[in-house]
Write a structure and sequence with these properties.
Helix content: over 70%
Number of strands: 0
Radius of gyration: 16 Å
Strand content: under 5%
Shape: globular
Length: about 120
């Protein structure tokens, strides 16, 4: 249910149909000039740099979230929007959320299914 909301939001924010690690990072990099010159683009830039990793994590696109979080342009734009302290705080929080959710996903997918759930 939650995945069905966050995946399209992620896709719409960076204007791409593919929510893959390479596609999201590349598409995000292309949005910089658009946001800079569009009316209200500064608010969109703030929203994207603050929430895009969370949308990706919640849609279970862990590789895309990880790729975005190590992207130099993403980090630069996030710090530019929120300053060094707040940008760094949010970045660390996103990295921890990614680690926690990916670990949770791997433990649930590696558990053997009970006989009833296999039916």
């Amino acid at each position: 249910p939650e995945v069905k909301v966050h995946r399209p939001v992620s896709s719409c924010l960076v204007d791409t149909d593919q929510v893959t690690s390479a596609a999201i990072a590349d598409a995000f990099c292309k949005t910089g000039d658009q946001n800079q010159f569009a009316k209200g683009g500064d608010k969109l830039e703030e929203y994207m740099t603050f929430f895009l990793p969370s949308h990706l994590i919640r849609s279970r696109c862990f590789a895309a979230a990880g790729e975005l979080l190590i992207n130099a342009e993403f980090i630069t734009r996030r710090v530019k929007c929120f300053g060094a302290a707040e940008g760094s705080r949010k970045h660390v929080a996103d990295l921890l959320e990614l680690r926690r959710e990916a670990a949770k996903e791997s433990t649930t997918s590696s558990k053997p299914k009970s006989p009833q759930s296999r039916k």
